[in-house]
Amino acid sequence: MLFPEDFLHYVWKFRLFERGDLRTTDGRELEIFSAGTPNSDSGPDFHTARIKIGDTMWAGNVEVHVSSSDWQRHGHTTDESYNNVILHVVYKDDTPLILPNGRHVPTLELQSRIPGDLHQRYHNLVFGNQSVIPCEATIGEVDRLTMQNWLTRVLVERLEKKSATVINALDLNRGDWEETFYQFLAANFGFKTNALPFEMLAKSLPQLTLAKHKNNALQIEALLFGQAGFLAGDFKDNYPSKLKKEYEFLRKKYQLTPIDNHLWKFMRLRPQNFPTIRLAQFAALVVHSNHLFSKVLEIKDVQALRNLFSEIQVNDYWEKHYRFDVESAPSLKNMGAASIDILLLNTLALFLFSYGRHNQLQHYINRCLKLLEHLPNEKNNIITDFANLGVKINTAFESQALLELKNNYCNYKKCLHCGVGNKILKLG
Ligand code: SF4
Q1: What's the rounded Cα separation, in Å, for the pair 322 and 320?
Q2: Domain residue ranges in the chain
Q3: What is the spatial distance between Cα 36 and Cα 239, in angstroms, rounded to a whole number?
Q4: Which residue in 122, 202, 363, 415 has the fewest CB atoms around it within 10 Å?
Q5: Cβ of 425 below 6 Å from ligand 1
Q6: Residue 288 pLDDT level (bands cut at 50, 70, 90)
Q7: What is the pLDDT of residues 163-186, one digit of tens each?
Q8: What percentage of the chain reaches a pLDDT higher than 70?
Q9: Which of 398, 415, 422 to mutate to test the pocket of ligand 1 (most atoms within 8 A of CB)?
Q10: Whose CA is nearest to atom 4 of ligand 1?
Q11: How far is 329 from 332, CA to CA, in rounded Å?
């Protein structure tokens, strides 16, 4: 069976070996008070360990290798940062370790002390047959509390990574949360297909410019459709003609340059999701929701957050149109519940977290997590696979965490660094 160094790290870190009558390879008594803190940078594997060897209490670094000769192979002999290692922990002691300064480094050999069933479980977990994830045979047996604790941890890791992009944008916007929120919300209004042109549109048309026209819906619609490049042609309908006229005036006033109209995609979209309809909805939101981010921070009730989007009314023109000058059967153009929940998940929850993290206000982070607990889980292949393995998934909290788990742990077989993997290895 394979015995990777990673596994030996794990065994040392959690002291999962027989600890009766511990001795160094030269026969001195050894007592471990602390295995140390894992070091993810260069240098020895564990820092600040506390170990008694013979009558002397040592505090310092521990290095872990499969064979003691790995010290030489890994080039530590000539690296001064390894000179103060207090203990060399090895699976097999195949050569005594003497540093260039003549010091014998005490060595602990674990070969005969690691329980065979632990090694077998590790082997089955990481190297066994699998079709979806390494622990597919056992993940369904892991208790709910362990799953919940671990999923919370990976969900926070996911949100921390995503919030880094928010904080970058916030810096570019000189600390303006409203502007940053407006840009992200716009990008998410484009959903997957039109996220880029929506984002470009928002960046080309500052929210502050729109705010100057907050009492004039036609001007806001003109600014958004004009900057999106939809008002370049001639129109037979009155509504787009009026928008065009209004935009021409505002364009000169603010020296605006519209984005390229060809960026917008209509192909393979249901008419309800056409960018023209999404723009009309976005314009209605801007008209009806001044200082939207401040409102989001204030509203604690999930349904009230949903209402911010469900109650917006687009211009009457869109009741019989999906595109300018092309009449269609009448239909409501309100945002659907599923689309609203995607916006809540991708924008509002993320901003509550980012705002809370940036300002060290835990209650906003808690509100983000609560919001995710109230939103339904996404549906995709990864989530279906976990559900088929017996993992209970009901909310976006769980599905978001599982996406992170799959993409950043399971895919790289980081089972030794995973709360689920730890539980499976210790289950016995
Ligand atoms: S990383 Fe965790 S959840 Fe993923 S396969 Fe390994 S033990 Fe299972």
Answers
A1: 7
A2: 5-114, 173-374
A3: 71
A4: 363
A5: no
A6: confident
A7: 999 999 999 999 999 999 999 999
A8: 99
A9: 415
A10: 410
A11: 10
